[in-house]
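Weekly puzzle thread! Below is a chain. First person to post its structure in token form gets bragging rights.
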Amino acid sequence: MGGDGSGDGTTTTEETTDTSGSETTETTESTTTEQTLDFQNGELNFNTSPAVAQEKLQAQYQPVKEYLDKSFDVPAKLKLANNYSAVIQALGAGTSDIAETGPFSAALGVKADKAEIVLQRKGYGSWEYKSLVVAADDVDVSNLDEMKTYLENNDATVAFADRLSASGCLFPLYDLKKAGIDIGSLPESGGSDASFTPNFSSHTGAYETLKNGQADFAGIGGFVPGLQDDFDKHATIIKEHDGLPRAPIVVSPELSDAEKTALVDAFTSAPDKIYYGKDGEKGTDDDLWFNGVRETDVETYQPVIDAANELGIGADYFK
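Winning reply:
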């Protein structure tokens, strides 16, 4: 769920946090570290993946940044990544300390020794979500078997989210392959050997590509229809894949055990207001999509790893 990238594929916001008038809560005081943790370079860098537009991410994660600022003795900085791969690369290089990212990129990051999964997020009342394959409104297809026939007889485009998105790429491709559709060597290749032309962007970008008549089908996260007032007018769901573990929060393997523990403790004891966005009000447009976290590890994401293995995707993706 962009921006001009720096050398590590991220851009850093230049905003400074004014906490002079902020309310100090018991939770924040309890998570303030007694020892100095320098987080590799004297600042705490939090990376976000491009799930939504950059300006929305800045507003949504502003309270998280402020909370981390108050919880530790180093300044917190919010970095907006150009893509999921940039998030994992930054964690592995030690230029990012903690990040939110998708299940697929996180699982591959663990396999590549570039990330460690420490928290799972809860959203829309569940620890699980789903991926969707949808057809454009003017495409007369209602299931994957019919999609296979359509692709065999038409030059078609399939829009996806980021190549490292679990719900917007990995599981749609997994489901297409299981249905006998030739996906070639996607998602690692350019797609010239597939039975369709792929187009990669973001979840909302994939839907907009479909809506604008530039794609026949799209692979998107199950949350996308809820973000669009006119979804049913432009798209028909032809495949749902339920039971995906919701996205994690990951840390750099370069951190000390004390730093990793401190970050986990900070998030698991954080006040609810960190999820309410820049305006601080619950239920408004800048709320985060998730409203809770729990401690976890890579085992939670085994279904994602299994799907990646089925498609022949390994840790060398980041090489």
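Puzzle host: Confirmed. Bonus trivia for everyone else. Confidence is low (pLDDT under 50) at residues 1-34.
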